[in-house]
Write a structure and sequence with these properties.
By secondary structure, the chain is an all-alpha fold. The chain has 22 helices and 2 strands. 80% of the residues lie in helices and 1% in strands. It starts with a helix and ends with a strand. 49% of the residues are buried. This is Transporter. One of its GO terms (molecular function) is transmembrane transporter activity. Keywords: Membrane, Transmembrane, Transmembrane helix.
Length: 438
């Protein structure tokens, strides 16, 4: 027994021996932790700056559309084509973002996207012709399109435990960028001597600043590669699962049409609403502020609406409230555009918050991650294609009717099918229940 005890005693002492880390190791760990914290803070700054740059190319142009038309000799129809370019670019270039991210890394693609925005915004005011203006606008919008798709992916991948707060920060920065460009473009243009070219080009500096925080992430592809391996493993694990044919789902189609019609309203608003107020006698600076009010409504409501939607089994009541707000706003815009301008700007801003509701419903109308991915791709790509003709048609109607009566009637008329499709998309069901085949 003593022998056993004697044999056990050294083992007990050995098991309790703890090696004290060397001072150099401690310093190395601290440096690594500090470096990770620094990169995390830099990434947050990059996300905020990138989100802020995703709309000024559109709303700054809307604030100066009359000057741009006069300067380039555009007709109303061509100006309508110009306001249709954003959804067209989002539909065409946005689908390339996942493939580019797999090849080069999401950070590199966003960095290149910010550079494309800056180059397009800097060049387009000085090209001297309508076709070249459209082409350089498309360059900036291409950068917006790929960044728009990849930003939520980066948020989910880099901040898996803070998706809600980071998405809220990203959404707020996007809405603030949208509203800021609408509000200050005209005053900036006046401060720069009244030259609309300088007033548009100045936004390139903001995009150039957004390039800088992304430079350290250009060569970081490990996470994207890990994500690709995870996706391959997920596909292999679900190889024998039922196939989801999302195009067979009525809910998917209702959501796609709802997304498309709300995007139509948003791009008509960004492209034409300031001009509607200006034609009603509102000064250019105040018209830009009114557009900014409409855009800034998305800052608080982007937080409220998704939380409310997830607590309801059916999102129809929210859709109806947004639709009613839009109809009242368009009615006021038709009957008394100048007298009640601030009220109509607020009401139309509320109606335009169908965008965060649509994104929320994408996540609620599918049970699985693969289903959400398929539904999101289908609803957004189809929706942006649906939204392309709207701004162009508004320009054609404005030119040929000589006023805003018919265009506003069109906007109000589109709000009715948008509301119907939103109610259908908000029903408590999933695409897996409707579109799964053996």
């Amino acid at each position: 027994m003593m022998g056993v005890m004697t044999g056990e005693e050294p083992r007990t002492r050995t098991s309790t021996t703890v090696r004290t880390p060397a001072a150099s190791e401690v310093r190395s760990v601290r440096r690594a932790g500090a470096a990770r914290a620094w990169r995390t803070r830099l990434l947050v700054v990059g996300i905020v700056l990138a989100a802020f740059n995703l709309r000024p190319a559109i709303t700054s142009l809307g604030a100066l559309l009359e000057e741009v038309r006069d300067g380039l000799g555009m007709s109303g129809s061509v100006a309508g084509l110009l306001t249709s370019v954003p959804p067209l670019c989002f539909a065409v270039f946005g689908v390339t973002a996942p493939r580019l991210a797999r090849r080069f890394g999401a950070g590199a693609v966003v960095c290149a996207g910010m550079a494309a925005i800056g180059a397009g915004l800097l060049i387009r005011p000085y090209v001297g012709g309508t076709a070249a203006f459209l082409a350089t606008s498309a360059l900036a919008l291409m950068g917006i399109a790929v960044s728009n798709v990849l930003m939520p992916v980066i948020v989910k991948r880099r901040f898996p435990d803070r998706v809600g707060s980071m998405t809220g920060l990203y959404s707020m920065a996007l809405a603030l960028g949208t509203a800021t460009a609408a509000a200050v473009t005209v005053p900036l243009t006046d401060a720069l001597g009244g030259n609309w070219r300088s007033g548009l080009a100045v936004w390139a500096a903001l995009a150039a600043a957004a390039v800088l925080p992304w430079l350290p992430f250009v060569r970081e592809r490990e996470r994207e590669q890990d994500g690709a391996r995870g996706a391959r493993n997920e596909r292999a694990a679900s190889a024998e699962a039922p196939v989801l044919r999302v195009t067979r789902s009525r809910t998917a189609w209702a959501l796609a049409v709802f997304f498309g019609l709300q995007a139509t309203a948003a791009y008509i608003t960004m492209g034409w609403m300031a001009q509607i107020f200006r034609d009603a006698g509102v000064p250019a600076g105040r018209a830009g502020l009114l557009l900014a009010v409409t855009m800034v409504m998305g800052v608080p409501l982007a937080f409220v609406i998704p939380r409310l939607a997830t607590r309801l089994p059916h999102q129809g009541p929210i859709v109806l409230a947004l639709g009613a707000s839009g109809l009242v706003g368009y009615a006021g815009l038709y009957l008394a555009p100048a007298a009640g301008a601030w009220a109509w700007a607020v009401l139309l801003g509320i109606a335009n918050c169908a965008f965060p509701l649509a994104l929320t419903m994408v996540g609620m109308r599918a049970r699985t991650g693969a289903g959400v991915a398929q539904l999101s791709a289908f609803a957004q790509s189809t929706g942006y294609l649906i939204s392309i003709p709207g701004p162009l048609l508004v320009g054609v109607l404005y030119q040929h009717s000589g006023g805003w009566g018919l265009p506003i009637a069109l906007m109000a008329g589109l709000m009715i099918p948008q509301t119907i499709m939103g109610v259908l998309a908000g029903r408590d069901r999933t695409v897996e229940d409707e579109a799964t085949t053996s």
